[in-house]
Amino acid sequence: MRRLGKALLVGSCFFAGACSEQAAPSLDVTAVPAVAETESVGTVGDDAADDPAIWRNPNNPAQSLIIGTDKKAGIHIYDLKGQQKSFLAADALNNVDIRTVSSASGDVILVGASDRSDRTQPRLALYTLDSENIKLNALTNIAVGTGEAYGFCFGLLGDSDLRAFIVTKEGSIIDMSVGLSKAMPTVNVNRTFKLATQPEGCVVDDRTGMLYVGEENVGIWSFDLKQDAPQPVRFAVLKAGELTADVEGLALAPEGASGGYLLASSQGDNSYAIYDLESGVFRARFAVEDGVIDTTSDTDGIELILGDFGPDYPGGLFVAQDGDNGEGTQNFKLLSWDAIRKSLNLYP
């Protein structure tokens, strides 16, 4: 849910309420500078940019790509300098995710998004990323379930069990299997989970089979996808100084077989909360520094992919949507995961 208006960030000052230029710095929020920002999305003067996904180029990491939705117009593809490389028009796409998977024609880079063009029936939109020509090719658009499509994420369970999850505004989480063994993808609904109030952001830990979902005014829940009938388990709750409603985008920083961190967009105080994945313990929070590149506010979607992305992002790339980009329309900010970890003392 969007609340427009950029809060002021002074040094590391970032509070849930208004922050004035004379306010004392908040010692528990660390400001980390953005390395780059994308060009603005095309929709002007409206809540439009929403959710990013990252494709890491294994052969040339510095040539990796960012996919970002404009929920009023379509999908943008940006390079790591933030320059737009292509755009595909599409109605009312919200959240987006990406996986490289095997198909009937070989490995494909599959992009999925929640389509809310019909507010009574969620739709799953699937595309392939042509990384050589830097463009998306539409595969299919399938109606599933009931309600208004909102959040979306992929999960890859084992070597070949590709799942897609659409989160609806009404609180449903629709678990689907996606098959790519034929010329056209097949999509089958497996089961539906339920939360009491409006969720959105979701992310799957492919290593452990855990699905994490943010319930905007409550906190974060986990579902064990290995179970026949997964029940929501409370992972994190709203708490002053940690996580402020709305809970929006979620992202993972996996380490080892089951460790690492879960990151959440704490939209109400314009910060990002970090939790230990195995214990659920809150570790730290940070905000984007207001410097050469402006800060972020009212962030919806976030994404983090670890690995080498070239000299600016040697350990990983974090991308956050910015709900108020000053004089420009909304866009996405790019940060170094190494810089975030060092600033927050998250190294072992």
Model description:
With 348 residues, the chain is mostly beta strands. Helix content is 2%, strand content 50%. It contains one helix and 25 strands. The chain has one helix at 337-344; strands at 30-32, 36-37, 49-55, 65-70, 74-78, 84-89, 93-103, 106-115, 123-130, 135-143, 149-157, 161-168, 172-179, 186-194, 199-205, 210-215, 219-224, 233-237, 247-255, 259-266, 271-276, 282-288, 302-306, 316-322, 331-336. The strands form six sheets. Strands 1-22-21-20-19 form a five-stranded mixed sheet, covered by helices on one side. The chain has a four-stranded antiparallel sheet with strand order 2-25-24-23. The chain is globular. The protein starts with 29 loop residues before the first strand and ends with a helix. 50% of the residues are buried.
Strand and helix map with partners:
Blueprint: E1 30-32, E2 36-37, E3 49-55, E4 65-70, E5 74-78, E6 84-89, E7 93-103, E8 106-115, E9 123-130, E10 135-143, E11 149-157, E12 161-168, E13 172-179, E14 186-194, E15 199-205, E16 210-215, E17 219-224, E18 233-237, E19 247-255, E20 259-266, E21 271-276, E22 282-288, E23 302-306, E24 316-322, E25 331-336, H1 337-344
